[in-house]
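Q: Sequence in, structure out?
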Amino acid sequence: MLSIWMRLVGLVMMAVLLSQCGGVSGTGNMGGPTVEERDAKIASEPTGDFYYGRRYFVEKTRFWGYLRQPRQPWSKAKLVLFDESRKTNPDRLPENGPAGQRYGFDNNFEYRIRGNFTGREGYDPNSNQFLPIFQLTGYEVVDRQPGWLFRPDDTYDKYRMTLYPR
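A: Exactly. Output:
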């Protein structure tokens, strides 16, 4: 009898865990423009020899964030690691500094990023991903509060990856 109850409790726990692994639903927690406003902004943005980047900070990971070419949707963005041998990334600060002055302070800031993809990949052990390496040569902040990244129902969690192109 105890075995049956243990199996039942195990099944209930598994159902709860699996229900939390599904797609993101609801209104999200990142705010921002309507889909039409975002599409119009992207369609009219300046082009040039740079990328648009969105900082994506998740505790203990080492990727920088997403990069896309001008006038391309965020769904075509790539999650990247930065090669900082020429220029350090915008938030290269101590991880235990005061609030607003520590690594990851600029989560979800949008940047104009200069540099090139190296053609190499690097491994981020904490996200268990091989990611393209981007040689950073410069950057400038474009927007400190751009809102959602891929869809209006995006939900940010600083302890686990929740934002993926779709």
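The first helix runs from residue 2 to 20.
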